[in-house]
Amino acid sequence: MKTPGWSTRRVAGQLDRSECAVINCWEQWTREGTHVRKTGPGVNRKTTRRDDRSIVRQALVDPTVTRSTIRADVGVAIVPQTISRHLAEANLKSKRPFRALPLTPEHRQLRLQ
């Protein structure tokens, strides 16, 4: 749209985008020849691969271990969500012990009596 001579305002109105977005996209196109957004490196990880394996190993050895216990054993200052994310990446789900065993129909009848 900019190549045939459309104004930035007209292009922004046609695409329902801000004029700033159109200007930035056009500048990138003229500078690099592409409009693809660059992906960044993201945030640096606090845990090493060895720490990650240790987290998963602890959860496999003792399924009832808590996140705070794992965090203390790893020795790196990480939040509990990090531990949950590492366990989810390893396809491990949380296992909570039963508060009470489910009652069978026979147990229910005996309990009512």
TrEMBL record:
InterPro entries: Transposase_Tc1-like. One of its GO terms (biological process) is DNA integration. It comes from the Eukaryota. One of its GO terms (molecular function) is DNA binding. Residues 52-113 form the Transposase Tc1-like domain. Transmembrane segments: none annotated. Pfam families: HTH_Tnp_Tc3_2. This is HTH_Tnp_Tc3_2 domain-containing protein. The lineage of its organism: Eukaryota, Metazoa, Ecdysozoa, Arthropoda, Chelicerata.
